[in-house]
Amino acid sequence: MFMLRNVGKYIFGDASKQDIIQLDQGQLYIVRPHSVKGYSECIFKDAQATIRRTSTDFHYQLVIQRAFEEGEEQLIDDAEDNDDTKDEKTFLLDESLHLRHTIRDGHAVFAWRDLSGDPGDLYEFICETTVQPSAIQTFEIVSIQCQYERKYKRGREHATEQDLKQFIFTDSPIPPASPVATSPVGSPVTASRASFAPVTPVRKTRKVREPEVLEATAAPKAATAPAATEILCKEGAELHLFDVSSSSFLMQDQEVTATVSEVGQWQYWLQIEGKDRAWLGQPVIADINPIFNFEYLSFIFNHYDMDDGSAYSWLLRFKDIETEERFQEGLMRALWEQLNEMKWAKAKEQDREYVLDAFQDLTMEDAPQEADEDEYYEAEEADDAGNRSEEYDSDEEEDSTHVRGVDEDGNVNSQLAVGFKHDRSFVIRGNNIGVFKHVGDKNLEFSTTITGVKTPGGKRFAPSKVMLHEGDSSMIMQDATNPHNLYRMDLEYGKVVDDWKVHDDIPVKVFAPEKKFAQMTGEKTFLGLSHNALFRIDPRLAGDKLVDSQLKQYASKNDFSATATTENGYIAVASNKGDIRLFDRLGINAKTHLPALGEAIIGLDVSKDGRWILGTCKTYLLLVDSLQTTGKNEGKLGFEKAFPKDSKPKPRPETKMPLSFTAAKFNTGIDASETAIITSTGPFMVTWNLRRAIMGKPDPYQIKRYTEEVKADNFRFGSDKNVIVALPNEVELVQKATFKKPTRESISTPVRQLRSRHHIVNSPY
Q: Residue 323: in which H helix or E strand, if any?
């Protein structure tokens, strides 16, 4: 067999996790070779197989769950007669099942007895070809170890190889789920049996795009390593390079040495060398986007060529867990020290564990290569995918039908503000503002253009940041050249009517509503951030508008970068260092401080109840649960009470694409719960199913691809089905149903077009 005893040690992992291992793509059949009911029946045409812990020691379940399409699960949840048992089948992992596995026509098949059926009846889970062979092998090993624990009522670590082999069943072959193919001249018995087999619908023939012929990806010339002052780690590994033409990692060298070293004050270097050549040399910075996968003993990272900026994706595969752990600690130490300019050893032990835990068990998931891809392209090109407005022009008297026109001054759409109280969206384009009306659920109608934004003193400027205010009747805006002042535009008149000096010495870097839904009310005050201060701004004050009594200023340079508020006014503040602070009110110390993970946070959002915190980093999204589930503060949020030192919330990095995300946002509404996340990266819009992401389900995200960079996007207020998107010269309202599961081809195509890092979107606003 294959290392039955040792492999399960790291698969079973944290005992608090209910799910141990999962096969994420397959179909479930019940096969009845001797039944009058028919030979076979497809139970779930799209399903997941999971081995799950139970509340009883040494007892485990095999769980087969139906997988839902986007939106389907919500419809079923809303149904009055919803029965969860119809979408899930559970089996106690016992030797009486005779669980076994084979390969048939390129598909892995797991089969087990139907103990409640007739003799010979059995269930079959047929894996998709996209499921990795290593995952199939590991799934079988874990199932054997679970059966051992149930039989002997003791841990798998006590089992010998011979003990485990008794659960490998070869007593009978696995019959095919659909053994008979129908033909025009089949026998009556053949026709009868085939009628119960699943029928594959015939798809209409459509024109297929000719695939682009690509050259194999070649490794760039390695940069010369600077002189090292300290070696943080030095480990052996295999080296693989992602090849765009084959959409796979290809072996480059079977034996390399990967070294992380300190080369200057807070400067670190990664060098990879083989016996015959140097393969890679690069600074250790957040852009490498480290992804550690201990199941496959791998480390994936990005590399940007110093000469031309070309982007590459490399993979190191280590010989064992211990080697990868040593390398991970050395690399994460270098990243952390480079970002925080403080020695790793001086950090608190729980903070170090927090950083290391955040990047464990991250895997890149791919949707199966099936008919979804054709549907994706069809939806993208369909006329009813959304209603594109005619591009607004700086001169309303000119013909407004010049879609995709470019201003003479080169301005393009840059920001989007979505109204909460009135169905309006505002798009910033240079020093003009386009106003769009939401008509019904699927239409966007151009209303007007506010031209020539200028201060009350007559100076024209292009707003660098904007925020709707006072029941969507005003817009707060900032001129990037004057960070100490803010301006208020009266949207009814389309003019800037107020110029507010906030403070002579404290610039405004970020501003945000007092509470999540404050822009729907007449609330005058709002929040402001400088690089090291959090404060309230009250326009009604004489002179400076900063409220001195509600100023929290730090002596150190925290480099604050983003803030967000809850419905009750709790405040989350993030920084370019990557840490997050949670406050229950202004003017005091944070209740909770979450350490930096190694990358700047460029955007922040919070669910209205404060439980979920959504941070946007350049190469991943960070989802944090602020609800405390143990200890004396059980049931309290991190905004209200500090987390114990040894139980800070574990962040969930959602990292799927080696590009650059714009600020991600939850859908929101007074009576709506957060169910989805929207962001963009280059020509992609990406939406996450929040429930699937929280549960750790595979493929919780879908994409929609454009031919241009997406400048800004957000959900329509009160909806998770409608998304407003601003392209450089167009504004569009699209249905979330037009987003599709990603494939390697759909993701890698834009990467080829944006091969230079200089073309990657890098604007958080």
A: helix 321-340
